[in-house]
Amino acid sequence: MELERERGITIKSSAVRLMYEADDGELYQLNLIDTPGHVDFAYEVSRSLSSCEGAVVLVDVSQGVEAQTVANVYLALEEGLEIIPVANKIDLPDIDPETAMEELEAAFGFQIEEILQTSGKSGAGVHELLEAIVKRVPPPDEDPEAPLRALIFDSEFDTHQGVIAYFRVFEGSIKPGDKIRMMASGKEFEVDRLGVFVPQMTAVEELRAGEVGYLTAAIKGVQDARVGDTVTEADRSADEPLPGYREAQPMVFSGLYPSDNVDYQALKDALDRLQLNDAALHYERETSAALGFGFRCGFLGLLHMEIVQERLEREYDLDLVATAPSVIYHVMLQDGSMVDVDNPASFPERELIEIIEEPMVKATIMCPQRYVGQVITISDERRGIYEGQDYLWGDRLALHYRLPLAEIIVDYFDALKSATRGYATLDYEPAEYQVDNLVKVDLLMNGDPVDALAIICHHDSAERRGRVLARKLKESIPRQLFEVRIQASIGSRVVASTRIAPLRKNVTEKCYGGDVTRKRKLMERQKEGKRRMKQVGHIEVPQEAFMSILRSTPD
What we know:
globular, eight-stranded antiparallel β-sheet, Elongation Factor Tu (Ef-tu), domain 3, 13 helices, alpha+beta, 34% strand
């Protein structure tokens, strides 16, 4: 993907078949899946690991073992996979691979002699890695005569072929013309085409147990070939589906709106197709008084949100406005009922609320010892609860914190990277909910609340956040032909107020002579016109104004 090349990260899992002639003279078929590493895409990793017998763990020798490396290795261990540790990028100048190998030994107990050294750039060590895969990873031992059971681990939508499902065959075999059934949806289809990735799509006549490929079957509905579903034969169905992947639980919610409401249907179609390719994306319709019709979307994290928005804009030629991200709060009302709130606009009135619970996460921050003070300061500013630390290897430590999810989804990771010169790494997992004193901060323009700009934050920082938001909105919104008053309020109490002065036009320029009453008449007429314009005027709020909320950390 172009986006992957620009950012230098892996966003989507990629499958490929490799035919390799080993030193023993045998020709082996290797089915490989490259997965992302960022914590936001841990769901992609879990999907891929469920389809494999082994895992190659690549550690960048310039970075060492990172927090996400630890998390992904434990995912592979839970699946019972054979793990091959590899120190990669050994061709980098002034880098000692031995340090990364010692970290792998200290973190996971690997023996130094079993850790391979490779370079994707120069090709060094690649032959040894392929030999290790052939020798260490067990071949699939599924029954090829059993009823078909194949697991869909990814899919995409093609305008001409419909849904293209990527799957791994666990039992049985499949051929073009076979009648298949999706065990979750119950829908039946006839296979049009089978193929493998070498790495381009190449048609084949049959896929048997242990092989990875793709199929097309005139599947038109994006809901009919969901990731994690089991494909079986329509006539000779398997008794039970394969263990599916755990359902992806969105942690961050944001509104996506087309800049022009004419593009609403195009955005809906784009989300339908993108969800097929990204099963972790959730969305539902929503309406905003300020932005019109759009969708409330759930993401795994802020990076996931940014990637989805960029893909929608690039791949589907859309111009979108994204609102500030939020999380799911549990709000208990005075009558004893509990409601889930993922949008500040639907936050109940303050007098109706009994208690508010916010989601917490267990975070692990790994960094060199000399940066521990900065990490603790940043975490404490975001209401973090220190739970301890572990000395790992060399001068590296792992700090354990319980943090509110709402405090870390915006700029926590960026702040860590800046304070530690890029050495800190972060991994987190959901924890329980916790009761806290939270309030809703409304942003008003000319007295009218703008629902898309409202935020939920802790009571102690609400006034400060309100002042920062009002000031940043003043800097982001361009001047209009009429005065724009910006206010931040908590309930009915205004905590910050500022104004954007109107653009002035010299209407008296042509009055170069004559009585002063001529000028006064023109000024009065302009004042009346601006007053009426203010009553019916529409304030254009640019995307930068919404993004300023993301970076509204109090000064």
